[in-house]
Amino acid sequence: MKTIVLTGAAGNIGKVLREQWSDGRYQLRLNDIKPLGELATHETAYIGDLRDAGFCTELLKGADTVVHMAGIGTDLELDLLIEHNLKALLSLYQAASTHAVRVIYASSNHAIGMYASETDIDEHAAVRPDSLYGVSKVWGEAIARLYFDKHGVESICLRIGSFETEPFERRHLHTWLSHADMQHLVERCIEALHPGFHIMYGVSANTRNWWRQRDNPIGYHPQSNAEDFAERIASIPTRGGPLAELFQGGGFAASDYTKKT
Ligand SMILES: NC(=O)c1ccc[n+]([C@@H]2O[C@H](COP(=O)([O-])OP(=O)(O)OC[C@H]3O[C@@H](n4cnc5c(N)ncnc54)[C@H](O)[C@@H]3O)[C@@H](O)[C@H]2O)c1
After folding, report:
1. For 20-79, how does the pLDDT look when each residue is reduced to its tens digit (9 = 90+)?
2. By residue range, what is the domain housing residue 80?
3. Which InterPro entries does the UniProt record give (predicted)?
4. 116 to each of 113, 125, 244, 255, how far by Cα in Å?
């Protein structure tokens, strides 16, 4: 049985993956700085801060893959982003290199959020971050690339769209990622033979997707489609005001926007 490290296990996505894996299909090492509650027999808690390089080395020793969901998920102050999205990630990659562990990295659509809505792009399009948070995810993708090119650490960077139980606003017609598709995506990343370095869009099979996956070496085939909810959500404005409708990053792109057009 594979040993999987799940960081950010107390967070939104971490909690869902943990529940989806409650049948014990993997031996799970659960990491967070927050409490993790009661553990099942296939789970071990590793409470600790990923900025600590020694802790990361212990966490990854003997593991097959780390599913890295820990980090700051919003556009908070630069210091916090540097600490948790940059420094912690670097510690994790150093440990992954030491122990030859595959990394599945939670990047974000906010790495490309300044593309105009209705523009189709693929995973090779130039990055266009929409916030300092988005910049921190670009940095993470660059670290992943560096550690593959220089140290052979296999990485799949997931540009996650909108991970929600159900889509609830207009933008989600393009960006929704269902819980079931996320599980399928992460499991394909875990099971793929020699994926090397890759960027994958973490998005469901939405009719109105902006993001095209040109290369799909892991065999990701999403099933959910936000269009099933279109009647209810097409008239619900994207959070962040009218500017948020213009950019793929929605409210993150609209926030603090000062460009005169
Ligand atoms: N939820 C989404 O729709 C979405 C979209 C795009 C990208 N992402 C990315 O996916 C990842 C998971 O998202 P989420 O919504 O579950 O986030 P979340 O904020 O709910 O969970 C993140 C978890 O990471 C933990 N953490 C933060 N810094 C840590 C550190 N130094 N050491 C150990 N644990 C630490 C936090 O305690 C928290 O429980 C994030 O990196 C986020 O940027 C999420």
Report:
1. 999 999 999 999 999 999 999 999 999 999 999 999 999 999 999 999 999 998 887 999
2. 3-254
3. Epimerase_deHydtase, NAD(P)-bd_dom_sf
4. 8, 13, 10, 15
**Catalytic residue (one of 26, 133, 147, 201):** 133
Which of 13, 24, 59 minimizes the C-alpha distance to 160? 13
Q: How far apart, in whole angstroms, are the C-alpha atoms of residue 157 and residue 108?
A: 9
Question: Does residue 123 lie in a domain region?
Answer: yes
Residue 192 located in a structural domain: yes
Burial of residue 230 (CB within 10 Å: 0-12, 13-18, 19+) is middle
Nearest Cα neighbor of 45 from 69, 9, 11 is 9
What radius of gyration do the chain's Cα atoms show?
Answer: 18
Residue 106 token pair: 């939670």
Place of tokens 């599980």: 183
Distance from C-alpha of 252 to C-alpha of 250, rounded to nearest angstrom? 6
Does 115 participate in catalysis according to the annotation?
no
Question: Tokens standing for 192?
Answer: 């793929």
Pocket test of ligand 1: the residue of 163, 181, 199 to mutate, having most ligand atoms within 8 Å of its CB, is: 163
- Ligand 1: atom nearest CA of 15 is 16
| Stated length of the chain | 261
